[in-house]
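Replying to the earlier thread about multi-chain prediction with a worked example.

Input:
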Amino acid sequence: MATVLDPGKLTLTDFKGKVDPDWCPGCGDFGVLSSLQKVLFELNIQPHDVITISGIGCSSNLPGFINTYGMHTLHGRALAVATGVKMANHKLHVVVTGGDGDGFGIGGNHFIHSMRRNVDLLYVAMDNQIYGLTTGQTSPTSQRGMKTKSMPFGNVEEPINPITLALAAGATFVARGFSGEPKHLVELMKQGLRHKGFAFIDVFSPCVTYNHDNTYPWFRERVKKLEDDPSYDPSDWQGAMQKALLWGDEIPIGKFFQRTDLPSLDQAEPVLEGGPMALRPLGISKELARDLVAELM
Amino acid sequence: MKRTFAVSIGGAAGQGVATPGDIFALIFARRGLHLNAYNAYQSIIRGGHTFLTIRTGPEEVTNFGDRIDLLIPLNQDTIDRHLHLMRPGSAVIYNGDTIKPKDRTEGVQLCPLPVNELSKGSRNKVEQNTLALGASLSMMGVGFQPLEEVLTQQFKRKGDAVVTQNVGIARAGYDYATANFKPFADPLPMTGNKYAVLSGNIALAMGGVAAGVKFYCAYPMSPSTGVLHWMAGHARKVGIMVRQVEDEIGVINMAIGAAHTGARAMCATSGGGFALMTEGLGMSAMIETPVVVIDVQRAGPSTGVPTKTEQGDLWQMLGAGFGDFPRVIAAPTDILDCFNLVPEIFNIADRFQCPGIILSDLLLSEGRSSIDPKELAFNPKIDRGELITAAENNGKTTGYKRYKITESGVSPRAIPGVPGHVHTVATDEHDEDGVLISDEFTNPHKRRAMMEKRQRKIGGIERAVRPPELMGESGAAVTLIGWGSTKGVIGEAVEILNSQGIRTNQLQIRWLVPLHGQAIVDILKTSGKRAIIVENNYSGQFARYLRSETGYVPDGHIRKYDGEPFMPHHIVDSVKEQLAGRTNLSVPMHEIMV
Ligand SMILES: Cc1ncc(C[n+]2csc(CCOP(=O)(O)OP(=O)(O)O)c2C)c(N)n1
Ligand code: SF4
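Result:
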């Protein structure tokens, strides 16, 4: 686990990045960034033991605004890069951030496969149901009928439901947050970061500039926390599926599902018993080399 | 001329062409004979036509040659296709019950085996193969002992009864041939050496082990899949994290992720998969995280001919990825070089923090060659460049700049986890500290400085790689220029031409980037009267590249793009027709129908 150099000495500002975010004032992504910083601070994780990895998009600029190791990769590829990072150094805490276009559109294939592999990381999708950085086109989560620059007469396609998709693909921790509910979001992120396996949080993170349908007030009227219902059982996959299908006057947020009985990818790989790949010495013994050649003689 | 002996085994996929091929290879290599093997096959699991040629001899054998000394057709189709290629002194061993030679070739010994009689009516389909193996070894003068050893080893797991049965059948074939067929005039000599038999793909994978690769990932694609198979099979034994990924976009991104943590990471694919990787290649260059990608060329374009060879990806490698960035590209020149090149290119990629591309092809990757185990250097020189793997100053370092502007263009690279060096790398253009300058902070001076910093590495790379050298004496009548996998076959053509009084030398290019164009042009000024570029593609990709870099235009070209590799006589005949002034572009016809 993480090497804590100066326990107790961290402050929240230790997680402040080199530059301030350049998001539009009021953008939902601010809430996600500050929640993530808070979680790392409260869990007392050293900045150098975390790596935040993103793709491309407004939301994907997040690694530049937080003081952890970071990678700002290619559009849609953050999860593939993150899998490589985790499997080469499983001692690092890996956090992946990005937008709905990045994760569910161009990155859809990696999304599905990292979930079924149960890669141990926290994936926070900042879902604004629009392409922000490219100035407002339809995204995979844009609602039917929504007018955008690329579908000026209204979206005629059905959106993806990231929660049912994640459940179906085998994610072992599936949650939904709202950037307008930071305390709740911090709690979800904490659980997600502690979860040993793929933790997915779809966060409603309104784009105040290009999405005039799904706004803060629109969400405030609708979101309802699963945690407020004491009878809700997040270990029940079918119950989670049912809840996840709700969309309309009531939209559930919270932890839909978690299971802890499956090994994460790093736990399933015996090769890692010898410690992180990245930190091992290079080269092999003379005996092993001789063995390898003997197979061919 | 070197003494060699070539056996070809042909049949439908599923008829077991591979097993007798492997057995021959093992027997030759254990008797200290060198060998080179090439399998012509199709993308089919059953049926089709598979034609494996193994050429052996006491000295190094670099290609499968021009002549078949022994043909073992496993079905009628094979004998129909190839009997006419057989020359006086050669022989054909086949199942006399089921296969009937249609035309007779003068001086070719036809050796039908009464398979039903010899195998006592057993219905085991591969028995004709075992009988033929026994008969072959008798005629080659190898003796029965080596075959018995290999069969015993091979069937040990299935129990003594199976071993006895197989050895018995092989013996029957051996004895029958001894009694009924004329042995080859010149039995193969033995040497005291023992060689290993490697495919290019296995050599690349083991080269990865030697280089200290700790992460390998791939998506299956012929003809590169052999690397994945070896890596996956040995991952636990040698300690490599091996992953099969959802697609090649994922492959390169995952490899870069792993490389970013400080692990040496490698992946392999063929042209189609490489096309998907190109955006990732640019990322490797932009964030300055070294990764090594192997492209095993097959005949293109598009899905092309998955089981056929070509040198058609050069321009894809040169142009892969948008924007300008430093990269290194090298094409191994033989199977041993597949092994040696991997650590070498990793050292360069690590030192200059850029992507490294190994350009192999089906001929090398799926071909096999004998290698003296002493030549496999598993502990080569390792140079990781300026890599920061541990905290300095008690972890109190401040002001670390990942992309510090330096004279060499190389900035010390700290791996994640090291205290005091926290930074974010970015595919967007960034400043020295990794902060993006792509959006609102864009500053043309900073952009220029970063661009020049990265490109300055090219100078260092050029100095780190040796220019090519002429093989043979300058002042010849002909200089043959090749690149990568054609070294062996061109080399043999050179030998033949020289033996026929046509003074020829060879310039084989291994490093494509950096090319050392000036050095090449200087060599060609005095190397010979006529320079001819030999390559396995349609458009002369290397010739066009050399011209674009240097303005140099050769006197002639020899090209082949039918999916099959060059044979020595293709090159020899082409040189002669060019010397006679008949053409300056020869496209030899492949005579073996596979
Ligand atoms: C391969 C590739 N295609 C397209 C783009 C252009 N592009 C950048 S961000 C983006 C979409 C952004 O939407 P999203 O991921 O939802 O993030 P947001 O900006 O809304 O946070 C697109 C299409 C790109 N950078 N790379
Ligand atoms: S365009 Fe939208 S998503 Fe992008 S920063 Fe502005 S508000 Fe946020």
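Chain A touches chain B through 62 residues (CB under 8 Å).

Feel free to reuse this layout for your own posts.
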